[in-house]
Amino acid sequence: MLSYVFKKRNDVCIIDVKKTWEKLLLAARVIASIENPADVCVISSRNYGQRAVLKFALHTGATAIAGRFTPGTFTNQIQAAFKEPRLLVVTDPCADHQAIMESSYVNIPVISFCNTDSPTKYVDIAIPANIKSIHSVGLMWWLLAREVRRMRGDTPRTIDWDVMPDLYFFREETKEEEEVAEVPEVQPAQDTYNAAPVVADPFAVAAEPLAAAAEPLTMIAPASTFPAKEEWVAEPATGGADWGAEATTTDWGAEGTVDWTT
Asked: Judging by DSSP bridges, how do beta strands 87-90 and 125-128 pair with one another?
């Protein structure tokens, strides 16, 4: 990485910005040449680059892996998180060494942001940048996303990109924000023990009770459209017969008046 150093000042290496821009354009051309944007895998295990990786994947359609990289993601076909990307873009070669090592096993080209003291083994395109600064990491990812969109034709070069670089910067939550997020707002309970007793008004008129319904509220069957039929089991209109009363009909056992022998 000494070829990208412009000069040294107080044992601090100053990176040549012109070479950084040239390598950034080269990386953007390689990313834009991938037909399917989801085949580009961007990785950042450091906290400073996780938000930038997620925003880059949102604006370019790439696949993001923010946080811990699961070993075997590129080599173990049994696990559910197995991926076969065509291109790998990492934030820090030291922190993301596991992903770079596995990409060398399956022949995946690697693009990485590198500092002056970063290892470049198995890195195909090294973009010199200060990866130890929060704002530097976010700005480099924002510039890369903007150039990729311009080369794909999603954003014309005649107008400015409406996305601000601040969205790519890592923002650490303050203690007040963490306390507000952890402790929800709870309404105070009503103090019924120490509350003043309620005195009834002697001049108040009591509410009249609701009058009960005269008839129960039942469902009324709709009128039938068929003609009425004679009911064979219906009782006569004069009233039901008294089965306990003595019968007044003819005595079938009495002698008849007709002489059938003649």
From this structure: unpaired
Helices vs strands, H then E, count in the chain:
5, 7
pLDDT tens-digit map of 6-53: 777 777 788 888 889 999 999 999 999 999 999 999 999 888 888 999
| pTM strictly above 0.70 | no
SS3 90: strand
Name the phi and psi angles at 199, rounded to 5. Answer: -95, 130
Q: What's the rounded Cα separation, in Å, for the pair 211 and 150?
A: 78
Q: Model confidence at 149, in pLDDT bands (50, 70, 90)?
A: very high
Burial (CB count <10 Å: 0-12, 13-18, 19+), residue 208: exposed
Residue pair 84/70 in contact by the 8 Å Cβ criterion = no
Question: What span, in angstroms and rounded, lies between the C-alpha atoms of 12 and 114?
Answer: 15
SS3 166: helix
Partners of 40 in the beta sheet? 87
